[in-house]
Amino acid sequence: MGVHNLLLLLIVVLLVGIAIMIALSIFDAQSTAENKDGITSGLVRVAADAYSFKTRPAILGGGSGAYDESSGANTPYRIPANMSSDYHGTYSVTAAQPHSCILEGISSKNSSWHAICVVDDGGNASIKYFGW
């Protein structure tokens, strides 16, 4: 009877261990997806701010039709300090050109995960992901 109980205990411990491993794997996958969604949301928010800068007149601190200073703006688009980072990552302007602005978001969970967002002349954002 003792061997039977030990064998049953061993099987239960193995099943619990396998269940824990599966749960951790699912949690990690969800955490990764949540971080990617957060970076996407942050980049879209910054892209909207960049387009707002582009459409605002230079006298009001905007770009007068450009993301850079080619249309008379004092400076190219810069991410406001309160938008440059959040729980999911940090955001920066890679390049501000007259008709497009390239933004980058780097994950706070894993620095090799990053996304590049290109905002075009009409304010449309396209995002590409690397490392996820």
Written overview of the protein:
It contains 1 helix and 4 strands; from the N terminus they run αββββ. The protein is of the alpha+beta class and 132 residues long. It has a domain of 92 residues. The chain has a 4-stranded antiparallel β-sheet with strand order 1-2-3-4, with helices on one face. The mean pLDDT is 93.
What's the short version?
With 132 residues, the chain is α+β, with helices and mostly antiparallel strands.
Q: How are strands sequenced across the largest beta sheet?
A: 1-2-3-4
Treating each run of at least 4 consecutive H or I residues as one helix, how many helices?
Answer: 1
What is the rounded distance between the termini? 52 Å
Helix content: 40-55%
- What are the secondary-structure elements, in order, as H or E? HEEEE
Structural class: alpha+beta
Low-confidence stretches: none
Describe the global form.
rod-shaped
Total strand count, please? 4
Structural topology:
Elements: H1 2-55, E1 89-96, E2 101-107, E3 114-119, E4 125-130
Antiparallel strand pairs: 1-2, 2-3, 3-4
